[in-house]
Each structure stands twice: as C-alpha cells, then as structure tokens.
Automatic annotation (TrEMBL), chain A:
<dbReference type="GO" id="GO:0005794">
    <property type="term" value="C:Golgi apparatus"/>
</dbReference>
<dbReference type="Pfam" id="PF04099">
    <property type="entry name" value="Sybindin"/>
</dbReference>
<dbReference type="InterPro" id="IPR011012">
    <property type="entry name" value="Longin-like_dom_sf"/>
</dbReference>
<keyword id="KW-0931">ER-Golgi transport</keyword>
<keyword id="KW-0333">Golgi apparatus</keyword>
<dbReference type="GO" id="GO:0030008">
    <property type="term" value="C:TRAPP complex"/>
</dbReference>
<dbReference type="GO" id="GO:0006888">
    <property type="term" value="P:endoplasmic reticulum to Golgi vesicle-mediated transport"/>
</dbReference>
<comment type="subunit">
    <text>Part of the multisubunit transport protein particle (TRAPP) complex.</text>
</comment>
<dbReference type="InterPro" id="IPR007233">
    <property type="entry name" value="TRAPPC"/>
</dbReference>
TrEMBL record, chain B:
<keyword id="KW-0813">Transport</keyword>
<keyword id="KW-0333">Golgi apparatus</keyword>
<keyword id="KW-0931">ER-Golgi transport</keyword>
<protein>
    <recommendedName>
        <fullName>Trafficking protein particle complex subunit</fullName>
    </recommendedName>
</protein>
<dbReference type="InterPro" id="IPR011012">
    <property type="entry name" value="Longin-like_dom_sf"/>
</dbReference>
<dbReference type="GO" id="GO:0006888">
    <property type="term" value="P:endoplasmic reticulum to Golgi vesicle-mediated transport"/>
</dbReference>
<dbReference type="GO" id="GO:0005794">
    <property type="term" value="C:Golgi apparatus"/>
</dbReference>
<dbReference type="GO" id="GO:0030008">
    <property type="term" value="C:TRAPP complex"/>
</dbReference>
<keyword id="KW-0256">Endoplasmic reticulum</keyword>
C-alpha cells in the first residue's frame, strides 16, 4: 500500500510540481566473469541492458555502479567510461549493480507533457459523446489517477493498485493547492510551486491516506 | 453494460480488423486516421507507463477509464494488440481478450491457410465467430440491440 508519486500539470501541459514518495527502486548486484553475457548499449547517455535477461536483470535496467563505484551517466565517478571498463578482460571478475534509473527532472517534464496529450487523445477517441480525458489508468503494478479541475490544472497521483481513498486524496490535494499555492501572494499562476507549507501539508496528507488505507483492509 | 467497438492491430500498427456495435459518436475523422490515432495513443501509453512505473512491469498497461468509457488492452508476445472499448460498468476482461486471441484469432485466422497475417482480416468465418462470441458475453448490451 503506497502512494508513489504526485504530479501537478498546468493548463498548457507544463509540470509545475512533482513529488516522489517512498520510492524504493529495486537494485541488483551480480558478479560476472569474462566475457559478459549481457548486451549493453548507450541509450539517452546511460548504459542500458539491451539483450540477455538473467537473474532478475531485465532489459531496460541500467548500470548503476561497478565494484562499488557509482555510475554517472555513461562514466564512472572516477572518470573511466563504463563500456571500456567492461570490455577489457583484466577487470574481471567484476561486480556490477543494475537497477531502474531514477527519472531525471527533464524526463519528468517530458512525461508530464506526454500525459497531457494522451489525456486529450483519450477524449477525442471516445465512442460516446462528451467524454472527459483519462481519469484512471491501470497497469499490473500501479494505478494512475488523474483529476482535471475546471481551470485545466491536472492533479496526477500514481499509487499502488490496492491503495484506497485516492479520490479523496486528490480532492485534498486540490484544497492544499488552493490554500497554500494560490493564496500565497508570492505565487504566480502556472509557475512551478516552491512553497514549504505546501510541501509539508502534502506530505502529511499522503501519510494520512496511506495509514487509512491500511486501516480499511 | 455495453461494448462499443473492437480493434485488432498487428505488430507494425496496421489495423487488421475493426468492428463496432453500439457506438454513438464518431471521432470526426476518417477511419484510417482514427486507426492511426488509436495505435499511436496505445503505443505512447505503453512507453509512458514503462517509464513512469516505480517498479518493473509484467503485463504493463491494462486499461484506462474516462468519465464515459473504458478502454481495455491486451498484447500478445508477438505484438498483436487487441483493444476493446466498453462502458464503465465492465470490470477486468483480460481473460475475455485472451479468449478472443486464442479461441478465435488463432483458430480462424492463423490456422487458415488463405489468410495473410499482415493484411486486414477478410475471413467471413472469423467475422461471424467473433460477432457471436461478443454478443454472447454477459456484459454485452442491454441498450440497443
């Protein structure tokens, strides 16, 4: 039971607030012998597994570190290039840490505007007249709840499929937005929300919703 | 409860089969354009979901809801995609979509030597069997028969 993240998108599709909550992205460490039985490639300046799933390492996972040294993009922290380190036989046996990469701010902004357009297409393709956009999107590991206000601001909550009370939580989120962002004299409309009171109140509400979710089960 | 329409796409995005039952609004564009838009949306949702997901996905995208309809999605490992639009009262119909694939598509298209797998399906046998199957479902329409 958990609420994974919260996104707020303005009426133009720009991301104005994002919050990740207890995101424990799985990480996997494994020691390899030469030659490496995985195919790796550079994608978006990261070293990503392209082929050869084994022991829980999936296609799309990226290299997070080698022998305890953290990776930064396609280089290690000590400046060596990851693919070069992995291609020379004298570095083996080698311990590689794999995992899902945390989303960068740029990616979050991109995903937010992507959802903005999916929302519109969803209502265009409707077989019934006067449909709204996507309100609930289900996958096997999370549910995405979206609420669009009259003024076009979208509140998106990504939560565990079993989490209850998300609709109430979104309404609360709207209230917090109205109380601590809109009523803040220093906040300008459609701009990123940087406000401590907003942050703390949001966190409290998330924790409250998660606790209530456990109680009702 | 009711079923509005059904799309079958192949792995390249060609719409192999489309049929509608109780659809009340057209998308205001030509049918081929609508297929492209639908496939484009499904493709983007898949990539969106795999990137925004906090953990690794198994089945990936299953369905979405608006205030008027619900879209159900099923993809086979070979990339064949089945998309069904229903109203909001319908629950999880993954098994039904799988049955359409295994009992109707495989039976009457894959095993039919004259059916081309990457061309739109014209087999009448497939069409009648699919129509029969959909009309026999418990959540098929009460509204307009």
């Amino acid at each position: 039971m958990a609420i994974f993240s919260v996104y707020i998108i303005n009426k133009a599709g720009g991301l104005i607030y994002q919050f990740d909550h207890n995101n424990t992205r799985p990480e996997l460490e494994k020691t390899f012998a030469y030659p490496l039985n995985l195919m790796l490639k550079i994608y978006d300046d990261k070293v990503v597994v392209a082929f050869g799933e084994c022991d829980g390492i999936k296609v799309g996972h990226c290299v997070l570190g080698i022998n305890g040294i953290t990776a930064e993009g396609r280089y290690l922290q000590d400046g060596r290039e990851i693919l070069e380190v992995l291609s020379s036989a004298e570095n083996y046996p080698i311990n590689i840490k794999f995992g899902r990469q945390k989303l960068s701010t740029n990616e979050k902004i991109m995903l937010a505007s992507m959802f903005h357009s999916l929302f519109t297409i969803g209502s265009q393709l409707s077989p019934e007249p006067r449909s709204s956009g996507i309100e609930l999107l289900e996958t096997d590991v999370f549910k995405l709840h979206c609420h669009q206000t009259m003024t076009g601001i979208k509140f998106i909550v990504i939560a565990d499929p079993r989490q209850t009370g998300v609709d109430v939580f979104i309404k609360r989120l709207y209230e917090i937005y109205a109380d601590f962002a809109l009523k803040n004299p220093f906040y300008s409309l459609d701009m990123p929300i940087r406000c401590d009171l907003f942050d703390t109140n949001l966190q409290q509400t998330i924790e409250q919703t998660e606790r209530q979710g456990i109680n009702t089960v | 409860m009711t079923i509005y329409n059904l799309h079958i796409f192949d792995r390249n995005g060609t719409c192999l089969y489309y049929v509608e039952w109780n659809r009340r609004k057209s998308a205001g564009m030509s049918q081929s354009e609508e297929f492209k838009l639908m496939y484009g949306m499904i493709h983007s949702i898949k990539s969106f979901v795999s990137r925004i997901s906090p953990t690794d996905l198994k089945d990936g995208f299953l369905n979405f809801k608006t205030n008027r309809y619900k879209l159900h999605f099923f993809e086979t490992p070979s990339g064949l995609k089945i998309v069904i639009n229903t109203d909001l009262g319908v629950g999880n119909i993954r098994d039904t979509l799988h049955q359409i694939y295994s009992n109707i598509y495989v039976e009457y298209v894959v095993r039919n030597p004259v059916c081309d797998l990457d061309k739109p399906i014209t087999s009448e046998l497939f069409q009648t069997k699919l129509d029969e199957f959909i009309r026999g479902l418990p959540f098929f329409p009460s509204r307009i028969n």
